[in-house]
Amino acid sequence: MHILTTTTSNQSLKIVTRSDVSDPTLTITDKSKRKDSNVTVTKTDDGDYMVLTGSFSLAEGNTYSFRVKDGSTEVYRGLIMCTDQTDLDKYFINQNEYTSNQDYDNEFIVL
Fold first, then answer.
1. What does pTM read for this prediction?
2. Alpha-carbon separation of residue 95 from 61, 85, 99 (angstroms)
3. Nearest Cα to 30, choosing from 72, 55, 59, 9?
4. Who's near 42: CB < 8 A, 6+ residues apart?
């Protein structure tokens, strides 16, 4: 999973694709709204990695899926998590989402 922020400045995705692409297209799908949007990206190479740089319009706390294509051929599929938090090793995506019920009695009857 790739982590990006809400900034509209250029951000980069560093990926390893199935094949090399000269002019990639990037489509992002908001997983909560099921809405696709195309992002204009520039491609550079960093060793065996493809680095796609573009301006993303993302919302805090949302997850997105994305696809990189060469024409009609899909060469990469991935996930993006959007957060502005900087202390990522202490960040939990499901924090305070699940609570446990403590209103039960732990007694049982043996027959």
1. 0.73
2. 12, 14, 10
3. 59
4. 52, 53, 54
